[in-house]
Specification:
Blueprint lengths: L3 E5 L2 E6 L1 H5 L8 E4 L6 E2 L7 H9 L4 H16 L2 H15 L6
Antiparallel strand pairs: 1-2, 1-3, 3-4
């Protein structure tokens, strides 16, 4: 099994399995190293990691993201900031399991 190290700025983290990397905030430009590489390379250049980025691109948007986009569109069209803030507040409370009443 391959173990990967990632670099965030000057900090090196790892080792991680490919499954563990899927849960990390990883971009195609994130520097990655594993045994067999001479030097750090971008994660998008590592063939074994490409599926991580394909999965992220093909995942459907979350309901929260969709609702935020709808609220932003309503705000642009109505110009009523107070109603928008109320809707966002209600949505946040519902996401946290609180009553919106």
């Amino acid at each position: 099994m391959t173990h990967y190290f990632i670099k965030n700025g000057k900090t090196e983290n790892g080792p991680f399995t490919k499954e563990q990397l899927k849960a990390k905030v990883l971009s195609e430009e994130t520097p990655v190293w594993f045994a067999g590489l001479d030097d750090w390379t971008s994660a998008g250049e590592v063939y074994a990691l490409r599926e991580i980025f394909l999965e992220k691109k093909s995942k459907p948007k979350s309901l929260k993201k969709i609702m935020t986009q709808i609220f932003e569109m309503l705000l642009r069209n109505s110009g009523n900031k107070k109603n928008y803030q109320l809707l966002i507040s209600r949505e946040a409370k519902q996401q946290n399991g609180q009553s919106s009443l």
